[in-house]
Amino acid sequence: MVFEHLPPAALDHIIARGLLIEVAPGETVLTEGTRGPGLYVVLEGLVEISCPTAPPAAPAPHRGAPEHDGPRPLSRASTR
Predict the structure, then answer these.
(1) pTM over 0.70
(2) What gap in Å lies between CA 56 and CA 14, rounded to an integer?
(3) Are 68 and 1 in contact (CB under 8 A)?
(4) What is the distance between the alpha carbons of residues 1 and 16, in angstroms, rounded to a whole number?
(5) What gap in Å lies between CA 8 and CA 71, rounded to an integer?
(6) Residues 45 and 24 sit within 8 Å (Cβ to Cβ)
(7) Residues paired with residue 62 on neighbouring β-strands, in sequence order
(8) Can you say how many angstroms the Cα of residue 25 is from the centroid of all Cα atoms in its chain?
(9) Least packed by Cβ within 10 Å: which of 46, 54, 67, 78?
(10) What are the distances in angstroms from CA 49 to CA 18, 20, 59, 75, 80?
(11) Which residues are CB-neighbours of 45 under 8 A, at least 6 positions away?
(12) Tens of pLDDT, residues 13-52
């Protein structure tokens, strides 16, 4: 897990400022050339990363949520 080595206070700091969002399959989260609002962490599911301006190469990679023992609630995160 990405944050497993953070002290609890640092993790609480990140969670308190986060927003929990759900994205539908096929929905675009960020578009190349635009500035994103912050950091995205995939809690479950797959992400397709594509770069339309890059030269053709191998198929776009798919990234999934890290393996862990199940969902972990972000109790202090706001939902939008």
Answers:
(1) no
(2) 37
(3) yes
(4) 19
(5) 18
(6) no
(7) 48
(8) 14
(9) 67
(10) 22, 20, 10, 28, 23
(11) 64, 65
(12) 988 998 888 999 989 988 888 888 888 888 888 888 887 7
